[in-house]
Amino acid sequence: MTDSNANTEVAIFSAFNALLLRDLRVYFRSRGTWLNPLVFVLMVITLFTLGIGPDPSALSNHASGIIWVVALLGIMLSLDALFRADFDDGSLEQLLLSPQPLYLAVLAKVLAHWFITGLPIVLASPLYSLMLGIPASVIPVLALGLLVGSGILSFIGAIGASLTVSLRSGGLLIALLTLPLYVPAIIFGSQFVQSAIEGWPLMPTFSMLLGLLIGAMVLAPIAIIGGLRLSQDA
Amino acid sequence: MSSEAANHTTQATQPEVEPSLVLDSVSCERGERLLVERLSLNLSAGQGVRIEGPNGSGKTTLLRVLAGLSQHFSGTVRWCGKDIRQSRAALAVDTLYIGHLAGVKALLSPLENLSWWVSLHIPSIEPISKAKMLNALSQVGLERFSNTPCHQLSAGQQRRIALARLYLSEHRLWILDEPFTAIDAAGVVSLEQRIAEHLKQGNMAIITTHQAMQIDGFTSCALSETSSEQVASQ
After folding, report:
1. What residues in chain A have per-residue pLDDT under 50?
2. I want to staple B82 with a disulfide (CB 3.0 to 4.6 A). Which of A14, A126, B87, B182 is the partner?
3. Does A5 touch chain B (CB under 8 A)?
4. Which CATH code for domain B17-229?
């Protein structure tokens, strides 16, 4: 009895690994998926610096808001492709029919997607922090906030992606569905950076961000599974 | 997850539940059209059924219902005595479904595609060895292409990757939607042999095809065109 339980656990774990590795492999072989969001973020932030002008104080006043909104848009635009390819080639059918728990399968897919979109945006954060005149001492805090925040954005956005996967062009609809859900993440995310700039205590906003991430991670897959099942009935 | 584990154990303790698929006045509709009307069908161990009917008569719709992909149907479908609406997991463990879409990723090689599918659909403590997967690929004539990216292969070859699953599968029910599409004559013969072997082992198969098929133990079930013209009254 305990033996068979352990065995199913091993099988479940290997399925999770296989899904994660397979998705990462596909992403690395199609360079656009991971490069495009990053280039998008860098370009939009460049446009902001040009639009607002060279005054360093004007830039750094708005920096945290700009960074968060741009990161949100970059991740959201890339999410349109999260389930689309699998839907088109039939892999999604095979995934949904698998006896393995779908919850973990969805977790693996969103994690893989976060690795190639969210993580590069986090890693590049020192670069665009300097472009927006954020003090160097604040950069680690900004990166930490984005690390947690990009996870929230990925999980929430994936709900929109799952609901629109059977539509030919879900891009704008994903935005309409998920932007309202992004509000708490944006509020606490930019507040977190602002706190670091002003020297306020960091823990209250950081624990809110962590709480949002855990909530999104636990609850979003349930909604995503529902959305993916619906896509097969369309 | 616990309910799935419970399912496994009940199956383990009562291995002699005669596998059977029972359709009781199943009706499916797509959009406003009633495609399959009050279909009753009984399939037991060692039997195969070939669903026949002109284009648009609801063959694919019916197979998607039987595989558990679509919930848009009335009537009951029982797998081993259990309603598939309630126990999706029991059906998923025993079923292999190959639809119109191959479920093959163009950026991955045939071997990578197959091992992804295996980890999802053949949960076992000892992972299926690479040699077994290569053997399955050679059965469908792809041994020389096992590491070639799939986008370099032809439509028929991509289809063969999906069909290689049949040589690894020990699922008790095969649901194959037009499996012979884009397959050459020699390929069709060896697939027919594999399906006949599957039935001899006491398993079941449901197939749609427009081609002539010579396998013992197959009955036909015709979906009439008239029903496709009736508008759903309910």
Report:
1. 1
2. B87
3. yes
4. 3.40.50.300
